[in-house]
Amino acid sequence: MAKSAAGAKAARPGQMKNFEERLERLEALGEKIRKTDVPLDEALKAFEEGISLARALEKDLEKIDGRIELLMNSPDAQVEDSAPELELFSSED
Description:
single chain; Helix Hairpins; 3 helices
């Protein structure tokens, strides 16, 4: 049985490098599940992968939320060197 191109690209959440890539994969899985011509076993595998990705993304969002809360509540706090600069919160009027 040949695998589809989307199936061949399937990867575990830990193998994907960043949030955006994992979110794109989750969206692709959602589209795949919505198709009526996808076999049930393939749809179930996509659903399982999607649940795993969604949980990992939720954890990432919780970490990001915590960092934003820290930045908003204590502007003098030291943030790790690897933290992104949040231009959105700069006060340039």
